[in-house]
From TrEMBL:
UniProt key word Oxidoreductase: yes
Originating species: Spathaspora passalidarum (strain NRRL Y-27907 / 11-Y1)
InterPro entries recorded: NAD(P)-bd_dom_sf, SDR_fam
Gene that this sequence comes from: RDH2
Single GO molecular function: oxidoreductase activity
Gene3D superfamilies on file: NAD(P)-binding Rossmann-like Domain
Keyword entries, A-Z: NADP, Oxidoreductase
One matching Pfam family: adh_short
Segments crossing the lipid bilayer: none
Residues forming coiled coils: none
SUPFAM superfamilies: NAD(P)-binding Rossmann-fold domains
Protein's UniProt name: Uncharacterized protein RDH2
Amino acid sequence: MSAPVVPARTCQQWKQLFHGFFPGKPTFKEDQYPSFEGKVVIVTGGNTGVGYETVKSLAGSTKAKLYIFSRSEEKTLEAIKQIQLEVAKEYNIPNREIHFIKVDLSDLETIKPAVQKFLSQESRLDLIIHNAGVMTPPVGSKSKQGYELQLGTNTIGPHLLQRLLDPIFIETSKKNAPGVSRIVWVASSAHQSAPLGGFHWDDLNFEKIKISKTDEMMVYGQSKAGNIMQAKTWTRKHNTGSQIISSSLCPGYLNTDLQRHVSSFEKFLANWLLHPRRMGAYTELFAAFSPDVKDGSYSISFGIPSQARDDLLQDDACDKVWNFLDEATDPYM
């Protein structure tokens, strides 16, 4: 078995990493968002972190019908109440309706029932933001189906969710102007730490090598490389032409619940080095709405077009990842 190989960073990639610490102010903001009245939006993991801020911004600045797909009913209903209070105060919009559907992306068996519930309530879907994720959980953590937890939650689960939503999403896109219907895959600059070609095919779960502190970011990076490759590949696999935009992004270096598994010292540093989670919503909604976003593209904080690592954009590498994800999710379709 060969050891994972991580390509050396180019000058452009180092520049991208440093940009995360000093990104400047967003230029594409809420006053430029479309009203999205009559349209339906799903945000996964919208009950916490940057997802929470994204839902709040959508609730305050658009008229879209909003759904949060997340794991904890109790926490999400409480988050919805808090979002409603903040929207009433900050945007002067009382009683903003936000809907919840329970799904656990780390358990593929929960995803089809969630989609069925959504389809029983809606006849269209205009925008989906694959925001939910986990970062650097305890080494050896697994999804319900036995995949490394980050791969299972960040990549495989969203792949199944998108597959099951594709029919209604594609049908809805035919009613919209080109580029209105979008899929936003929330990746990370950590994709630069992923193995060559995105995945460590000899050991996808990283069970055969001892994981050091440095390696933890490589394992997380593998799952985020998968998101970039999903974004790059979706349109090519679905033959929708220019009707739909599928793109990926790094929301920014944000102080969110993603840091719950890091050390106390790392949390201390996060308070000094990372940006407020609200700023990440500007990146996600840049990808959702900006006319500057192209299909298959990659954006960084806080709404800047950028470029993902070259080896993750090659059709043969993307096809290998896509075929694996299809095979992993076929039994749950």
